[in-house]
Amino acid sequence: MIAMTGEGYFFKLPNNKNTFTTVKGAPCEWSKAQGATYSLLLENDGHRAVKLSKIRAYVGVGENEKGKIIWDKWDIRIIEEFSKDTVQNTIWYYTKLWKNSGLKHLEALANWSPV
Question: In terms of residue numbers, what domain contains 104?
Answer without folding.
Answer: 8-110
